[in-house]
Amino acid sequence: MTGAADPTARRRGRRTRTESADTRDRILTVAREEFSERGYEKTSVRGIAKAAGVDSALVHHYFGTKEQVFASAIEVAFAPALNAPEAVAEGPLDDVGERLTRFVFGVWENPTTRTPLLAILRSAVNNETAAAVFRRLIASQLLRRIASQLDAPDAELRAELAAAQLVGCAMMRYVIKLEPLASADMEQIIARVAPVVQGHLTGP
Amino acid sequence: MTGAADPTARRRGRRTRTESADTRDRILTVAREEFSERGYEKTSVRGIAKAAGVDSALVHHYFGTKEQVFASAIEVAFAPALNAPEAVAEGPLDDVGERLTRFVFGVWENPTTRTPLLAILRSAVNNETAAAVFRRLIASQLLRRIASQLDAPDAELRAELAAAQLVGCAMMRYVIKLEPLASADMEQIIARVAPVVQGHLTGP
């Protein structure tokens, strides 16, 4: 495996580590930073490779196209979030709305998870390829799992409308920073939003 | 007045019309197109001037900084929307949720108004200056007016949470294009969303 990627690097006289989890992780960390700072369109595989101190060919070898690098970077950043639906779905269905609302605001209130989330949102809003990655990963993986817990014929639409309330709140509070929402007490927001999310998911 | 702007254009040997509503309108139309296509950051006053066939100085003379050109372009694009809160607020308060929901989806379903709206959303998500313009124009003008109709101490927060549901739906349906929401029947969406918007605005 390593032989397929390293020769290019060696040809250019650049010293790279052998294929290892370390190098992959480093590339992904750098990729996440680059996508966060520049957005999808302005980020290049070349730039990621340069910042990670490896050859572009190695980035392509590990991850494929820029779109695939982006998807991998998102997946790593969202590993906790992508595993969350089980935690959200666990427990009684009649307060799943509050659990989901607390989970989503928890991710946004935490600066470590907010930064990559902002990057994904920005990229998805600006670029069709990034939007497709967003759809596939976040939407399908998160929302389909929540929908699968619901006993309703329009479960997926319900999950999406619940998510729309949460995404809209995040947009207004963390991105547009609209007052009074941006400075409102979290419990006050949860008290107003959780019943709406619950209503979308399990209401009549 | 005209004398203040034209000399620059004349100095560079470029023929421009005298200061007139026509020229201003043309610059604004071009500005809207440029901001729509490129987003706030990649759009320059120079590029707008070039596309409008006038000198940059004339654009600055009429509108000021790039931020001010952006604000003016939004204001023109949203003149109908900015005048809508009265229409939305007219009529009984107990179906203001449905009127607001139908109004917002009406704007998004119409390609003529969707394009500048997308441009504003994209710019606001990506750029702090554009976000500030968004806050001031759309948010303050639209939401404050709706809030002023409500008889509640937290009227502004209510209006913002209602708007968050609508903005989130627009994001998921028109920008991210998440299925089944993206293809769902409009009346089905309105039937689910309008009561939520109503609840935010006038609920307990």
Can you put this structure into words, describing what you see?
Chain A has 2 domains: 2-65, Arc Repressor Mutant, subunit A (Orthogonal Bundle), CATH 1.10.10.60; 78-202, Tetracycline Repressor, domain 2. The first copy, chain A, is 79% helix and 0% strand. The first copy, chain A, contains 11 helices and no strands. Chain A has helices at 2-11, 21-42, 45-52, 56-63, 66-77, 79-89, 96-109, 111-126, 128-149, 155-175, 186-202. In chain A, helix 2 packs across helix 3 (45-52) and helix 7 packs parallel to helix 10 (155-175). Chain A is globular and about 55 Å long. The relative contact order of chain A is 0.11. Mean pLDDT of chain A is 83; it is low at 1-17. Chains A, B: It comes from Streptomyces coacervatus.
Within CATH, the superfamily of the largest domain in chain A carries the name Tetracycline Repressor, domain 2
Order of helices and strands of chain A: HHHHHHHHHHH
Mean pLDDT over all positions of chain A: 83
Strand content of the residues of chain A, in percent?
under 5%
Task: Show unreliable segments of chain A.
Answer: 1-17
- Major sheet characteristics of chain A: none
| Number of discrete helical segments of chain A | 11
End-to-end distance of chain A = 55 Å
The 3D shape of chain A can be described as globular
Helix content of chain A: over 70%
Query: What CATH architecture of the largest domain in chain A would you give?
Result: Orthogonal Bundle
Number of domains of chain A: 2
Largest interface: A-B, 41 and 41 residues
- Rg of chain A, rounded, reads 20 Å
- CATH fold category name of the largest domain in chain A: Tetracycline Repressor, domain 2
CATH level-1 class of the largest domain in chain A: Mainly Alpha
Multimerization status: homodimer
Class of secondary structure makeup of chain A = mainly alpha
Strands of chain A, total number: 0
Keywords (chains A, B): DNA-binding
Organism (chains A, B): Streptomyces coacervatus
Protein name (chains A, B): TetR family transcriptional regulator
Pfam family, one (chains A, B): TetR_N
